[in-house]
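Please check both lines for our workbook:

___
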Amino acid sequence: MILKNEEERVLVKIWDWETRLLHWCNVSLILALIAIAVASDTLKDFKVAKHFRHQLMYYHVYIGYALIFTVLLRVLWGFCGNRYARWRDLWPFTAERMSYIAHKLKWHVRGFKEGPEKFRYMGHDPLGAIFYIALFIILIMQIGAGLTLAGLEKHMVPWQGLFSGFAHSTIKLIEGGAHELHEFGFYFIIFFIITHVGAVLIHELHEKTGLLSSMINGVKFIPEDKFKAFKDRTKR
């Protein structure tokens, strides 16, 4: 489909429905986890009864179980989704993509002037992909730390009895380390959300491809000449 306004653009299907569904499931679950964590700390500051706060954290764990499931599905979908959902499209550490990232960073530093070629990558932007990979690593770390704390403090599956044979001092050391990791991951995710939203808005203003709506309807509006250049490049 060709759309005509400032320049001819091609309506390109980028994100399959599975990728979009998992994206919004993960977003919703992460925001719910953040909200419960913040609410629990706030209630503690207001001296709300401990049993109420503990009950709230049980919900935190249950939502965490759901996040484990959706993150696992997204990891698996990276091997069998469409070309833009796959890990191959996300991986930024190639010579060509690292060169693009260097130009992109210069563009940011120079106040969004003399930037890299627009629309070179129709799926994941290579600079953004570095943050996505970091996010997945942090989420895996969060899951490990969260399951450890759920087992130690709430006696919940699957690790409720994993540390039963350990010395009390060792258990406290593990618990303290898990808390530190979980807190670090919490602040990284907050940082990621802020930078991700900012980057999406910058891209939307700079490229005007419908990036915001593409995670809802799956399509982007790509300039026709750039789309043809992309197809030629991928045929090589």
Summary: The helical segments are 17-45, 50-80, 87-90, 95-109, 126-153, 168-207, 211-217, 224-235.
